[in-house]
Amino acid sequence: MTSAFLKVEGLSKVYPGKRGQRDVTVFEDLHFDIRKGEFVCVLGHSGCGKTTILNILAGLDEPKAG
User: Fold this and answer.
1) Parallel, antiparallel or unpaired: strands 24-35 and 4-15
2) Whether this model's pTM surpasses 0.85
3) Which of 29, 26, 23, 12 lies closest to 64 in space, CA to CA?
């Protein structure tokens, strides 16, 4: 068995609410790993956090946890 090339454990992202509104949790406690040579596709409906996950992995955004 090959080891993970990329391992994500407990990834969470929360945007602070504006002007006293509640914080918006985009996703929480996300776990996955990708092995070298694997082809991965991120699917989901609009607004579910696909781009946010990729931005965090690229270092363009900060996670709340993970």
Assistant:
1) antiparallel
2) no
3) 12
Residue at token pair 């709340």: 64
- Distance CA(61)–CA(52), nearest Å, equals 7
- Residues 56, 13: contact at Cβ < 8 Å? yes
Quick one: which of 26, 24, 13 has its CA closest to 62?
13
pLDDT of residue 40: 92
Per the CB < 8 A criterion, the answer to whether 49 and 28 are in contact is no
Spell 24-60 as b/e; 16+ CB within 10 A means b. eebbeebeeeeeeeeeeeeeeeeeebeebbeebeeee
